[in-house]
């Protein structure tokens, strides 16, 4: 009787660990096959009982290859999520076809995946919900015109379903901004997880439009926390970024080989948004989970200068800098201007009031240098800069009531991985989420 009781306790501990509900890393005391099976059962039962509705907006094929990896990860968990939309929203060359290329690999592995769960969606069903979104950076107004992607987002949000719609933004936030502009009544149905940081750098106008017009939107703004998926944590042996791909991805079906062909090391910077739905408390971002742990947002950082700034001027990293500069005399009939900073050429907005306006979002805490290029004599060749700095830890104590449902990276030092604040709230789970991903990929082998 005692041996049986002890075994029940042991298995209960395995379930807790594998389910991600307690902060242990490995399962050395548990039977390995049982631990592997229980990990899959717990992942499926947790997500399956809730069946989260999901729309993904991705810049796959654009400026960063890691979206291919994140989409592979999403598809091997497609049996525990209700995926309702896959929207191409690139900065650069990416298009809807890049999503379809990953679905083609899923199609090749589909028969094997079905052996494990009959809830995997048919490949053609995924193709049918793949849509083309905005392919250009939003203008100063934050919106341009509706797209197939923004219209599909509105359609999904408008369905007669009591569950919220989780919108995972892996790239441009333009389609979300457009959908809210065209159908603001969908706002209460949305739960947004936004991988910001560099993506905000590419699209500050759409972001600023949302922050200004829809402050009551439910959103997690992950500007640095997401980096914990591939930065820090246990990187020894099989847990190393390259070694994990070598051991658990390469040779694991068409999806595994496709994953490796795009990048032979773990990046998957958008995957924490999926991890949040697999293991965590999606309704309470202050609680720990695979997608991180967040705090209520303080006033969204926005710095406006009516002059060209210098490196002595400071702003908060990931905030929005707006420069409003006078055009002066001898303005041509069609004035044009660009602000050059790193690999960006930011077009100036001419509102017709004798000024030009630029918006810039720094993706790192450092000093940036600017240079203006213009057919306006008073602007051409002018230089400037700005210093971006990390938020202070006390910022977490200043939640802005104007943003009641807005969450962002935890600024406390104990949550930081090097300069990436919040990242340790993800990489503390590294062995858990990678171990579970390895189990999933084994189904494709």
Describe this structure as you would to a colleague:
It is a single chain. The chain is α/β, with parallel strands linked by helices and 445 residues long. The protein has two domains: 20-298 and 396-442, Alpha-Beta Complex (Inosine-uridine Nucleoside N-ribohydrolase, Chain A), CATH 3.90.245; 302-389, Immunoglobulin-like. Helices cover 33% and strands 18% of the residues. It contains 14 helices and 16 strands. α3 (66-76) links the parallel β1 (53-58) and β2 (82-88). The longest helix has 19 residues, at 32-50. This is Cellulose-binding Sde182 nucleoside hydrolase-like domain-containing protein.
Secondary structure layout:
Elements: H1 2-18, H2 32-50, E1 53-58, H3 66-76, E2 82-88, H4 96-114, H5 123-128, E3 130-132, H6 148-157, E4 165-169, H7 174-182, E5 190-195, H8 198-202, H9 204-213, E6 219-222, H10 241-248, H11 253-262, H12 272-278, E7 294-296, E8 302-305, E9 314-316, E10 320-326, E11 337-341, E12 344-347, E13 355-360, E14 367-374, E15 383-389, E16 406-409, H13 424-427, H14 430-442
Parallel strand pairs: 1-2, 1-4, 2-3, 4-5, 5-6, 6-16, 8-10, 9-15
Antiparallel strand pairs: 7-16, 10-13, 11-12, 11-14, 14-15
Neighbour order of strands in the largest sheet: 3-2-1-4-5-6-16-7
The CATH superfamily label of the largest domain reads Ribonucleoside hydrolase-like
Distance between the termini: 40 Å
Which residues sit in consecutive blocks of at least 5 with pLDDT less than 50?
1-48
Name of the CATH first level of the largest domain: Alpha Beta
Strand content range: 15-25%
Decide which structural class fits the backbone.
alpha/beta
Oligomeric nature of the chains? single chain
Encode the helix/strand succession as letters.
HHEHEHHEHEHEHHEHHHEEEEEEEEEEHH
CATH topology label of the largest domain:
Inosine-uridine Nucleoside N-ribohydrolase, Chain A
Determine the mean pLDDT.
90
Any idea what the radius of gyration is?
A: 23 Å
Number of domains: 2
Helix content: 25-40%
Q: How many helix segments?
A: 14
CATH architecture of the largest domain: Alpha-Beta Complex
Q: Which of globular, elongated, flat, extended, rod-shaped describes the shape?
A: globular
Largest sheet, in brief, is: 8 strands, mixed
**Number of DSSP E strands:** 16
